[in-house]
Design goal:
Length: 195
């Protein structure tokens, strides 16, 4: 993953988006402190060339593990949590700015309602090259490709986490998004209509 592409646009992600879309996490598990959206320079002209052109970077801190005694380094569980937080924020930014074509009919309210129920990790791989000090490190995530299959939106992503002393880990994650209301909401609506 190239974490330093030529950038045509950089924008700080608002604290409001961070607060709203990290809200499902317990306070001691909110590892993402701030994020920046980056749009690398366009290479081609067609809309399909926009795929893979979104990048979000973030500053993280894990002062204390939420589930295990201190290991002294960033581990696979924390990788997954940090990936999720950076991904959730990236999608919020893309929806707020109407950038992701396959989710143009979503707004932030729709996304908030579907955030936990409709996003599924279908493939996950991670590699750890050199230990990362989890007290302060950075991460980056990009959407490399997206497609639609029936009622599913498939997002192929890659990410990396790193710190100033050379610590490095990276991964590839495929997300399936159910492009409909959560089943629980549908059931509630059905009950209220039939009552």
């Amino acid at each position: 993953m190239n974490i330093n592409p030529k950038v045509s646009k950089t924008d700080d992600v608002s604290q409001v988006l961070l607060d709203v879309f990290l809200e499902p996490y317990k306070d001691d598990c909110k590892y993402l402190r701030k994020a920046q959206f980056k749009c690398p320079e366009l290479v081609g002209e067609s809309s399909s060339d926009r795929q893979g052109l979104w990048l979000v970077t973030g500053d993280f801190s894990i002062p204390e593990s939420c589930y295990i005694a201190a290991t002294g380094h960033f581990n696979s569980v924390e990788f997954n949590i940090c990936y999720n937080q950076l991904f959730y924020i990236m999608v919020a930014y893309l929806i707020e700015n109407n950038l992701l074509e396959v989710m143009r009919d979503w707004d932030l309210e729709t996304y908030k309602r579907r955030q936990l129920s409709n996003f599924l990790i279908v493939k996950f791989s991670s590699t750890f090259r050199k230990p990362i000090n989890s007290n302060h490190f950075q991460g980056s995530l990009s959407i490399n490709k997206y497609s639609v299959r029936g009622n599913l939106i498939i997002l192929k992503t890659s990410c990396a986490f790193y710190e100033k002393n050379g610590g490095w880990s990276e991964g590839d994650v495929t997300i399936a998004v159910l492009n409909s209301e959560p089943q629980e909401t549908l059931d509630e609506n059905h009950q209220s209509i039939s009552a």
